Amino acid sequence: MHDLGAVSSRTVSDVKIGYVGGASSGWALTLINDLAACGDVSGEVALYDLDYEGAVGNAHLGNDVMARDVPGDWEFSAHRDIDDALAGADFVVCSIQDPPEETFVHDIDVPREYGIYQPVADTVGPGGTLRAMRAVPQYREIAATVREQCPNAWVVNYTNPMTVCTRTLYAEYPDINAIGLCHEVFHVQEMFAEVAERYVDEAENVGRDDIAVNVKGINHFTWIDEARWNGHDVFQYLDAELERRQPIPGYEPGEFADAGYWINNFQIAFDLYGRFGVFPAAGDRHLAEFVPWYLDVDDPGEFHKWGVRMTPSEARVSDDESPAKMERFLNDDGEFELDDSSEEVVDIIRALLGIEPVKTNLNYPNTGQCPDLPEGSVVETNAMVTGDDISPITAGTLPRQVRSMVETHVDNQETLVEAGLTGDLDLAFQAFLNDPLVTIERERAEGLFRELVERERAYLDAYDLAGASVLTE
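The chain above was modelled as a monomer; its predicted structure follows.
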C-alpha cells in the first residue's frame, strides 16, 4: 500500500484499486473508460463480485481496452474472495446492487399496490427503506474487510442509498477513510450554466465546471443558496427564471407516456425554490420522494404534469445502455473513442495521490460543515480533496422549514443504520412508518412492510425476523 500523504510526483504507478461490485454493467464500464483516459496513474484493478463470471467478463473488457491506443496502463483481475480483492488496496470503489428482479422490482411494485408511487425507490420511501435495510449488513462487511486488509485505503461509494451506505462504513469502522460520490448536483450546475447564458450579457458557452455552487443537505435532498459564474451572482436570476418557466406545473397528465424514464424539466425544483428560497440540487424524480405532496396521485400518469415520469420496475431489470457500451468497447475493428463520463472518481484518486487538487461536492460525516444538522451524520457539501486529505467546506445553515424536512430523513437514516447494526427489525419499521411517503394508515403500513420483508427475506437474514413483533402482531 502506498503512503498516499508522501506522494509528490506528477505520475504514480503501482496503485491498487479494489472494486466491490466488479460485475457491474454500469459503473464498472465508466471506471474502465475513465482509467483508460488517465495517463499519470497506473496499476491494478481487482474486481470482486458475487457474480464472479460477470467480474471475469469486466476484467477481460478492461484489459482489452488497455491494450488499445489509450493513455491508461492498468491491469484488471477478477477475484472470488473479497479479502483478496482488497488486500493492500490504496483505493476501494463500491457500486453494488442486489438482483433487481428479486428486490428492486418488489420495492417498486408492492408499495404501488398500496397506493404509494415512487419514481426511483432507491433512497427514501418504502423502496429506499428496504434497500437501506439490505445494504447495512453488506456495508458492514465491506468496512470490516477494509479494516483488516487495507485500513488506510480511501473508500469511494457510489451505491444508493448513498447516505446510509456511507454512514454504515463509519459506524462499523470509525477510522475508515470514506466518501460518497453522486452526480446529481452536476445536472443542476448545467441548469445554472444555462441561466448564466440567458441573463448575463457576456456569458457564452458556459460549462458545468464554470459554475461554483454552495451545496448543503443530504444526498438527493441537497440544496443550493449560492451560484456564481466568473464573478457574477447567478443565483439572483432564479426569480426571473421561475417566472419565465410558469406555469408550474406546466404539463398535462399522461403527456410523457412515451418519454425517456430519466426526463427532468426542473419543475419540482423550481416549485420548491419558489416556496423556500433555496434551490434543491437533485433531479425531480428524487426530490418528489422526500416530500409527500408531489406523489399524492391516483395514477402514475398524473405525475407527468411535473415534467417527469415514474421509472417502472421493468426498466430496473433491463438496462438498454449497457449492452451498447459493451459492444463499443469490444468492437473488433480496433477503434476506440473515450467518453467524457463527467464522473469524478479518477479525479478524486489523482487528488488524493497529490497530483492535482479537486474541489467538488461529496458525502462525508458532518463535522460542522452543516452546523444545523446532527454531528456525525453523513451530509453532502463541497470539499477540497488534496494530498490524502478531505477538507469539508462549511456550507452554512438551511432555512428552518427546509431543515425540518431534511432532519426527518436524517433521523430515519440514522435509525436504519442502528437497526441494521443490531438486527432490530422493529426499529427498522419505525423508520419505515416515519417516512413521509408512507401516508397510508398504520395497519396497512404494517401489512406493506410485512409483505416487502417476506418477499425479500433471503436478503434480510442479518435481522431477527423470528423475534420481530411487527411480523407477528
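The radius of gyration is 22 Å.
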